[in-house]
Write a structure and sequence with these properties.
mainly beta; 57 strands; 48% strand; transmembrane; cell outer membrane; receptor
């Protein structure tokens, strides 16, 4: 593959040079100023050629024109930015995790999101096994003019303690209107449909049915066998169409099979029939008008989307307004506000318990027909029929016994979808107002206030008749209940800055900013639930509680950070640029004496094409270098003991024990980074290359909590210790192999490799637990290894051979071993774009190499006899001898009975290491075909521009190693986005039609 890639690159470059030489005399386009202006930290506009650090700008068209609208702009950055790793799960309305230049903090971390110079919240919310998404999904992509990714510490140093993980700067559109100054109107409409990619869903065996062993459990009075109702596995008797069996629907009065024995055969309609083809409708209208000194832009967008699971729906309305107005020739104002109202029903459950996808992937009976379950649910949920006798509509395939119809392990999936659904409503508003006054020609003063507010109200339901499960505040196992969570998050920023620019000589000038910021963050959450179940079925309210509800669980904090900063940018003869920044911060989360800290940076760049005069063949060449320091903030309540209420006993308040010891002398974590790079443009920008190398050291870390011996009175403690190093390279390549009057072919490629290492934690501590998975596997930060180590059971080896336990005939397992690491080897993407007159065609290939994934689905699903691999040939019909050796090194000769309940595959026999897979993938991430109608065709109409496009996303997983699942489809955001495949929704191939009219 490497040789093929290299050969193609040589071919493209050679062809490009040949075409350029052939067309040079015909090409009348003059060489232009390289790269233009980009928006950097604090909303400062800079010439990109002057920057001494790596950044990458994505224009709105490249961001959204070539793909379906995901509803989350973060997902649409996949494969487009060198050094940016995007992980998008398949949860309905779920999170997209962003990671720039590797994990720098033990807890992970997403980059800071900034809109027009003001930070906004991008936290992902996950509670009670529900992924509510990351807050960047509230941003309307119709508002976005461009996104500039500030990758390293030097680029993000002006954000101090928030710059540790990089910064994504979003610039919103200004109103433009028509050339004659009148109002412009843009109407866009899109219809999108998803189709399941069957490579991301199980392929079941169709030779054996329900049971844990190959025999039926009981006989009915008529002498026929009952199916193994209570078994949630398919390791049962072999199918035989001539064998009549009492199956689950034998006991359902609404079923056509009521009191009828049916042939023992594989189901006609398997679990894949449970899913819908999700449809999304997006309509937006933009009104804009603009001229020098005043412009306005108003956008309204409505998105209605159905999920894969029945009874899932999202309705999102977004309003935004931006006004720029010069109050006087020297006083300039800017105002922007966006409001998002989102109502979501039926988000998918994540993780192991109560997740229908876990049932479909791990614990299922291949004889169960989904359509029969659907018909049974709708017939039995009817209010005239529903009662305790039929579990209020929860007629399940997994009944306990022939006499007891209560679910043994699983609800009817349709009952789960229509009765135990979640719902949430989110209100999001981001607003800023800004005034700039030109004191002199070279000095201006800017004052700005921004406010970001999110309200989330989320509800969880457990309908009467459900399988009892842990629920609510008490986490007791109950069969019904209702819970709600209310979250309020706000951030307010007050900024005052002075912009200056002076010419020291005719060829030397200095410019920069001096200013200050006050930031206040407020968080409040309240969680309450019923206790003991619901009194009246179907009424989901806290007042419908059988027992007195516990006191609500409340959490609140307010943080304030005060900052002062200054920058100085020197321009020497347009050939050498030297920049320095300094930020001083004071935070309320640390004690006085430790709560003031500094973040400096220095960068330099040389324009070698000007110094060496290479413009005849290399029209631009820059080399750059920088050094900077950024930080990571301490969270609230890390300094002193704080107590949480545990209720009232005999009229007295009682409180939970303190398990984690705080650290009064806590300090923020800091990262020091060094970066060098170069950028070159050849043959009048027909070939562009950008290369960067960086090295980052983050120390000290904030370890919260680090496990300690309970003998000291705590099970964990907050520490300032530990060090994580990252180093890597990033490459961006742009090619224009063909460029004529009517036809252009562009290639944009990026590739990056990051090497991560946990250098130290704390004296005597070698491992820090990050997450725990089913199957005894954990995600860890281990000294001497990359962040994200997977630890679990491995085989025991003798001379490289797997050892068999002579007592059982199964593999001897060696616990607590390193079995993988979630860090990818490298990531990359390549987009090809073709334009011919009014036609356009583009496609994006997205690649990730490496990054291990533990599949709990395969761990359990093979053992339960669900997958096709478990019924190959005579696998279940003959005794089995597992390959390996006995402890003395002799070949294994111990047989496993084909009829016992110990499968020779899966968790009963094989260690967790067997189910760690390489998470590499190659995807056709985006593709589009568009046509812009010619102006002549629109003559005489009110329309002056019209375009129609057919777009697609995730159209083809060209390569993957993880069976039956998408390597990206992890549990959620943050730490939950690394290395754990369990109960994931299948991936959809999304197709859409977009039309845009401008009036």
């Amino acid at each position: 593959m490497k040789k093929l890639t290299a050969s193609l690159l040589v071919l493209v470059v050679t062809s490009s040079m040949a075409i350029v030489n052939a067309q040079e005399k015909k090409d009348t386009i003059q060489a232009k100023e390289i790269e233009g202006v980009v928006v950097t930290a604090l909303g400062i506009k800079r010439e990109k050629k002057s920057l001494g650090y790596a950044s990458q700008e994505i224009k709105a068209g490249a961001l959204s024109d070539g793909t379906t609208n995901t509803g989350n702009i973060a997902a649409q950055l996949s494969g487009k930015v060198a050094g940016l790793n995007v992980t998008t799960n398949n949860n309905f309305g779920g999170s997209s995790n962003l990671l720039i230049r590797g994990v720098k903090s033990l807890q992970g971390g997403n980059p800071l999101i900034v809109i027009d110079g003001s930070p906004v919240n991008n936290a992902n919310t996950q509670a009670n096994s529900i992924d509510y998404g990351n807050a960047l999904s509230d941003i309307n992509q119709e508002d976005i003019e461009s996104i500039n990714v500030l990758k390293g510490a030097a680029a993000s140093a002006l954000y101090g303690e928030r710059g540790l993980n990089g910064v994504i700067v979003i610039t919103t559109k200004n109103g433009k209107g028509k050339d004659d100054g009148s109002w412009g109107v843009t109407f866009s409409s899109a219809i999108q449909v998803g189709f399941i990619d069957k490579s991301t869903f199980p392929e079941y065996q169709t030779r054996y049915g329900a049971g844990y062993k190959q025999e039926f459990g009981s006989k009915a009075s008529d002498g026929l066998f009952n199916a193994n109702f209570g078994a949630d596995a398919s390791w049962g008797p072999k199918f035989d169409p001539n064998l009549l069996v009492h199956q689950w629907d034998y006991f359902d009065p609404s079923s056509p099979n009521y009191k009828k024995a049916t042939p023992w055969v594989a189901a006609k309609n398997g679990p894949i029939e449970f899913f819908n083809n999700p449809e999304t409708y997006i309509n937006s209208v933009t009104l804009e008008k603009g001229q020098k000194g005043k412009n306005i832009n108003f956008t309204y967008e409505n998105m209605m989307s159905d999920g894969l699971i029945p009874n899932s729906h999202l309705n999102k309305n977004t309003f935004s307004l931006k006004i720029n107005y010069d109050l006087t020739p020297k006083l300039h104002s800017s105002f922007y506000s966006t409001l998002t109202l989102q109502d979501t029903r039926g988000r998918s459950i994540t993780g192991y318990s109560n997740n229908p996808m876990t049932g479909f992937r791990q614990w299922w009976q291949t004889n169960v027909d989904l359509k029969a379950l659907e018909n049974s649910y709708f017939a039995n949920v009817d209010p005239n029929v529903a009662s305790a006798a039929n579990n209020y509509g929860n007629v399940t395939w997994n009944r306990k016994t022939a006499e007891n119809g209560a679910p043994a392990y699983w609800n009817n999936p349709y009952f789960q979808a229509y009765q135990n659904y979640t719902s949430d409503k989110r209100y999001r508003n981001f607003t800023y107002g800004q005034l700039t006054y030109d004191l002199l020609d070279n000095i201006s003063v800017t004052g700005k206030v921004s406010y970001d507010r999110t309200n989330l109200m989320a509800e969880n339901r457990l309908a009467v008749g459900s399988l009892p499960q842990a629920f609510g505040q008490s986490n007791n196992s109950i069969g019904s209940g209702y819970a709600r969570r209310d979250i309020l998050q706000t951030e307010t920023n007050y900024d005052l800055m002075v912009n200056y620019k002076f010419d020291i000589t005719d060829n030397i000038n200095i410019s920069g900013v001096v200013g200050g910021n006050i930031r206040r963050n407020h968080f409040n959450s309240v969680y309450a639930s019923t206790e003991g179940g619901l009194i009246v079925p179907g009424i989901f309210a806290l007042s419908n509680s059988k027992k007195a509800p516990l006191a609500p669980d409340e959490n609140e904090y307010t943080i304030q950070t005060n900052s002062w900063y200054g920058t100085a940018s020197f321009d020497f003869y347009k050939k050498f640029y030297l920049d320095a920044t300094w930020r001083v911060e004071q935070t309320s989360t640390l004690l006085q004496g430790n709560n003031v800290f500094n973040y400096p940076s220095i960068t330099g760049s040389l324009i070698m094409s000007e110094i060496l005069d290479t413009k005849s063949w290399m029209n631009f060449w820059k080399i750059r270098a920088n050094y900077a320091q950024v930080g990571g903030a301490a969270s609230s309540y890390q300094l002193y003991n704080n107590y949480r209420s545990a209720g009232i006993l005999n009229g007295m308040g009682i409180y939970n024990s303190i398990l984690n010891e705080p650290l009064p002398g806590l300090q923020p974590q800091k990262a020091n980074e060094f970066e060098v790079g170069t950028e070159a443009h050849f043959l009048r920008d027909r070939i562009t290359v950008d290369f960067a190398y960086y090295k980052t050291r983050t120390s000290p870390q904030i370890l919260s909590p680090l496990p300690t011996s309970a003998a000291i009175g705590y099970t964990g403690k907050v520490f300032n210790a530990g060090r994580i190093d990252n180093s890597g390279v990033e490459v961006q390549l742009g090619l224009v192999p063909i460029k004529t009057k009517d036809f252009t072919w562009n290639i944009d490629a990026n590739w990056s490799k990051n090497q991560n290492k946990v250098v130290e934690l704390y004296p005597g501590i070698q491992n820090y637990l990050l997450n725990s998975f089913q199957g005894g596997v954990s995600l860890n930060a281990r000294v001497g290894e990359a962040w994200g180590t997977l630890v679990g059971a491995d085989y025991t080896y003798v001379n490289g051979q797997k050892v068999i336990d002579p007592k059982t005939g199964k593999y001897l397992q060696n616990p607590n071993q390193v079995i993988g690491n979630t860090t990818p080897d490298w990531i990359g993407g390549i987009r090809n774009s073709f334009n011919y007159k009014g036609f356009s065609l583009s496609f994006l290939i997205d690649v990730r190499k490496g990054g291990d994934i533990f599949s709990t689905d395969m761990y359990y699903g093979l053992s339960s006899g669900l997958y096709k691999e478990t019924a190959v040939g005579g696998y279940r019909d003959n005794p089995i001898v597992l390959p390996g050796v006995l402890p003395d090194g002799t070949p294994n000769n111990i047989q496993l009975s084909a009829f016992d309940n110990n499968a020779a595959m899966g968790y009963k026999t094989q260690p967790a290491s067997e189910f760690v897979y390489d998470g590499s993938f190659v995807k056709l991430r985006e593709a589009s075909i568009g046509y812009t109608l010619p102006k002549s065709l629109l003559a005489g109409t009110k329309i002056y521009d019209a375009k129609i496009s057919i777009v697609g996303r995730n159209l083809w997983i060209i390569h993957k190693n993880l069976p039956y699942a998408d390597p990206e489809a992890m549990v959620g955001g943050g730490v939950n986005s690394y290395g754990w495949s369990i109960g994931a929704m299948p991936t959809t191939r999304d197709l859409g039609v977009n039309v845009t009219f401008k009036f």
